[in-house]
Amino acid sequence: MESVPIKFGTDGWRGRIADNYTFSSVRRCADGFAQYLAEAEGTGRPVIVGYDRRFASESFAAAASEVLAGHGFQVLLTKEATPTPAISHAVQEHNAVGAVNITASHNPPEDNGFKVRDRFGGALPPQKLKQIEDRIPDTADRVARLRLSEGLDTGLITYIDPGPAYLAKIETLVELDPIRNAGLHVLVDVMWGNGAGWFPRLLEGASTQVTEIHSERNPIFPEMDRPEPIPPNVDVGLAATVEFGADVLVVTDGDADRVGLGDERGTFIDQLRVYGLLAYYLLEVRGGRGPIVKTLSTTSLLFKLAEMYDVPIYETGVGFKYVAPKMLEVDALIGGEESGGFAFRGHVPERDGILAGLYILDMMVQLERKPSELIELLFERVGPSYYKRIDTPMEASERAEKQSLAESADPERIGGLKVTGINRTDGHKFELEDGSWLLVRFSGTEPVVRVYCETPDEENVDPILADGLRIVGL
After folding, report:
1. Is pLDDT above 80 for 318?
2. What's residue 396's pLDDT?
């Protein structure tokens, strides 16, 4: 009996557990990836397999490992749930040909996923994802498979702990002692995910105190809709910041590759402002120079920073399948996206929510400013930014109609502002006369249409978004 076709999106494939995401479908994905790797890289080097804390992720990871071992690969399987950036670092540490990561990142609790990474530990570009997808068999009947017990006995499957090497790498990228000795109270919301325990391991031992919330494993993700570091999912953490009298809230998503931020007053700092802070930190505080890579859905403040510091800037489609290859191509200082994923030169070309959080803490220490004061400083340099995003679920049958509406849209004004250009590289981005923009985009991983805007005038946010919703008939 033939199975439903598997289509890879931004990072790989995601599905609903026990519906289309089954052991059979995971084995099929692993078989397609194994065929791709064997043709592109050969089977002489290992493959990393890791997973998150979602329901049965360790069992799905074992299933993927059995298939990769069945194709003759040496499989290095993480001993426990491991942050995505640590898995990517393990690819480089072990000179592996790539990695499989069983995670649905920030998706709802009912979902799980099958992420793939290349030999650099980064996301694969779209053409290579298509090559993997083309090799996925219709059924799992004839998929090569070596039982986990046999693989462990023969040494084709080995358990590894990527933690120590990853932590050692982090300590080469940011000086931790000033943060440890700063006397900060850092509240960390790990969203029931893979980020649990990492900030205490890195920072405790001196005057700085780290308090974690949502640190147990709980695959239904209580007190939030999903482990995505944006409101309302961060509301409990923001309230706890005030309750504990913490200096800052750092939030990592389900697999710890994305970061969210709250200031000392319990106010959320959106990820566009976070990207502005990180770029300013690297350019001004640390004196770094090099290209900036941004997706078209993230902040225009970066163009101003690039001009101020005379560095090139590159804009890509949405997703690290575009960002990571461009970072490698141009040796970027930083790359990032609207969802809070940021990667850095000298590290893996992969989002790292833990390192991004540490950089923000170091910025607080070096400049002796609270998070709200860092935002004030950024706005003094490049002007204000106000951002909002509305996600609207839709039925699969509605997608074609709404995409057609977006594709045919050619408004003269949006939110009362003149439209100066339309960028259809990835979605439909309407550029407006005062530097504002509106983006209408259909998710590559979920049945959702997203409407985003950024503007220097807070009063324009809601009118711009209202017109964006009307464009797709909402």
Report:
1. yes
2. 81
Distance CA 66, CA 146 (A): 5
444 has a pLDDT exceeding 80: no
The predicted-structure confidence for 235-248, as pLDDT tens digits, reads as follows 999 999 999 999 99
d(CA 75, CA 297): 36
Would you list the DSSP string of 382-427? H---EEEEEEEE--GGGHHHHHHHHHH---SEETTEEEEEEE-SSS
Q: How far is CA 402 from CA 399, 441, 442, in A?
A: 5, 10, 9
Phi-psi region of 72 (alpha: psi -120 to 50; beta: other; left: phi over 0): left
Q: What is the mean pLDDT of the chain?
A: 95
Q: Which residue has the tokens 């790498």?
A: 169
Q: In 3-state terms, the chain is what percent helix, strand and coil (to 5)?
A: 40, 20, 40
How are strands ordered across the β-sheet holding 342-344?
A: 313-316, 292-295, 334-336, 342-344
Spatial distance between the Cα atoms of 322 and 324, rounded to a whole number of angstroms: 6
Contact 193, 227 (CB under 8 A): yes
Q: Give the number of other CB atoms < 10 A from CB of residue 361.
A: 25
Which DSSP category does 4 fall into?
Answer: P
Contact 226, 107 (CB under 8 A): yes
Question: In this structure, what token pair is assigned to residue 112?
Answer: 């799980």
Given this model, what pLDDT does residue 397 score? 84
Q: How far apart are the first and last CA of the chain?
A: 39
Calculate what percentage of the chain has a pLDDT beyond 70.
99
pLDDT-derived band at 1 (thresholds 50, 70, 90) equals very low
Residue 201 scores a pLDDT above 60: yes
What is the distance between the alpha carbons of residues 205 and 227, in angstroms, rounded to a whole number? 29
pTM: 0.94
User: Which domains does the chain show, CATH number per domain?
Assistant: 12-163 (3.40.120.10), 174-381 (3.40.120.10), 386-471 (3.30.310.50)
- Among candidate residues 43, 56, 55, 117, the one with its CA nearest the CA of residue 87: 117
Radius of gyration of the chain (CA): 22
pLDDT tops 90 at residue 9 = no
